[in-house]
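Take a specimen:
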Amino acid sequence: MQKIVVFGKGGIGKSTIAASLSAVYALGGKKVIHVGCDPKHDSTVSLVDGALIETFMEKHARIFGIRDHQALGAKDLLVKGRLGIDCIEAGGPEPGVGCAGRGISMMLEAFQELDVLESGAYDVGVFDVLGDVVCGGFAAPLRKGFAEKIVIVVSEELMALYAANNIAKSVRTYASNGVYLAGLVANLKVKDGKSDRKRIEKFAKAIGTSILEYIPRDPAVREAEFARDKTVVERSPKCPFAKSVRSLAAKILAARKADCPIPTPMNDKQFYGGW
């Protein structure tokens, strides 16, 4: 099973890309599980016909209180989406109440106890994780051994690169768990900005990684996000975004740990000092 974790700061487009990756793999005949690790819990919307599914935290409150924990099975946690993709959302507390990362940790603990990712169940697991890894809960896939290939979605914007630098620090910290940084995905905010590409390339070199794919700015993405009924690669399979995601999907599967060095993230002084 290939365990792919898509990280990125909020609003960077990681959920759109992650859901599209799951769709590409499923359309290619692979058995896929898509795991939303964000309190916003909308990573799977386009995979289940525009519906917000019941989150793990909601199920935990409803089911665990009335049933013996050992009586639960994977079917109690997962929702079957389109294309045969099994979906789950961690969810989280109400805004301003509790720790959002705790929901992710609890969900992964249940995965372990219930053998959700048992051998042979899936070919690919796509984890969509909010890039605020200052909170240990968001680093849980790395810490608990669920991660393998890490992909960081960035843009040319400073804060997106700052978040990516912090995520690279977590990858370095948990490298002994077998995780590795497959590379960056540049989700461009402007059209054909050569200077913006150079900025991302310079950042990638600074932290010792590569750019897997440039995702172009594409109106088909906005249309799909508002429709919420299908992923971009299903609604507009010939659009530039879809073509880039299919290329990215193949590159991620082909990535090997031996070819991906441990990243060399900058400290804050170095980051703001100019690179």
About this structure: DSSP finds eleven helices and eight strands in the chain. The first helix runs from residue 14 to 27. The domain at 2-273 is CATH 3.40.50.300 (Rossmann fold).
